[in-house]
Amino acid sequence: MNPVIVIIGAGGIGVAIARRQGFGKTILLADFSETVLSAAADELRTASYSVETQIVDVSSRPSVEALVQKADSLGSVLQVVNAAGLSPNMAPPERVLAVDLYGSALVFEAFGEVIAAGGAGLIISSMAGHMLPPLTSEQNQALAFTPADELLDLSFLRDAVPDSMVAYMMAKRANHLRVQAEAIRWGERGARVNSISPGIVATPLAQHELNSPIGDGYRAMIAASPAKRMAPPEEIAVAAAYLLGPDAGFVTGSDLLIDGGVIAAMFADRLQTPGQQAA
Fold it and tell me: Which of 89, 102, 216, 223 has its CA 20 to 30 A from that of 67?
């Protein structure tokens, strides 16, 4: 059987990574939306990729465990990419935390039981994880090591997340902390796990945000950044190929920021953070 690459999230970034990583492997493509999943799978199959599909809700343990079981039944699970997520303008804070924070931790935990030796995992996080003010050491430890099913009960998540933007930034910071913790557990199986924090990538999701009430904030980030542009999904796929491949054999528990310099502009006080803009 071919080795298996699992891609969770059949949007622009997920499909770009599937195209770059999936030829000669069995791609297990998963998404919450049957419409999005079917269209992406048809596109890949037309290009001669071997594709299996499954609907998944990453905020549901039974759904994620069913995906793990299917992946394991298809062959050796060599790579797992979690590109699923909700943006701040798509859902209330509770749902953003359920998908982007709990769902991410759950995918790490569940696939950490089946990942092959020599395999690699990757989560597509966000530059937003670099925008949050420093947390306490106790909060960092809690976000990194609390069992997934207990994460949403942490008091500082219940009491200090006033809106979806803060929920999003908190979830993405948790992604960075979680890969550090999971690097230890995945390493016991001879596997690695990392995150990528993209800036604004030219996908339908980004267009949705640009057309939303927070679109001016996105345009300000692009204008203030040294790159002064968005990135195509293929640029993220190039970085993913490195982190998933043998050249990154010494890289685990790390986050790669690919934002065109947005965070650098914030550090240089040339751009307000989302929290400052809301104040």
Answer: 89
Residue 172 bears catalytic tag: yes
* 46-83 residues labelled b (16+ CB within 10 A) or e (exposed): eeebbbbbbebbbbebebbebbbebbbebebbbbbbbb
Structure tokens given for 124: 């597509």
Is 49 noted as a catalytic residue in this protein?
no
pLDDT digits (tens, 9 = 90+) for 8-34: 999 999 999 999 999 999 999 999 999
pTM, 2 dp: 0.95
Residues in the chain: 279
Whether 51 contacts 27, CB under 8 Å: yes
CA distance 163 to 182: 28
Does residue 273 register a pLDDT over 80?
no
Q: Exactly one of 70, 172, 228, 242 is catalytic; which is it?
A: 172
Joined tokens for residue 240? 């993913």
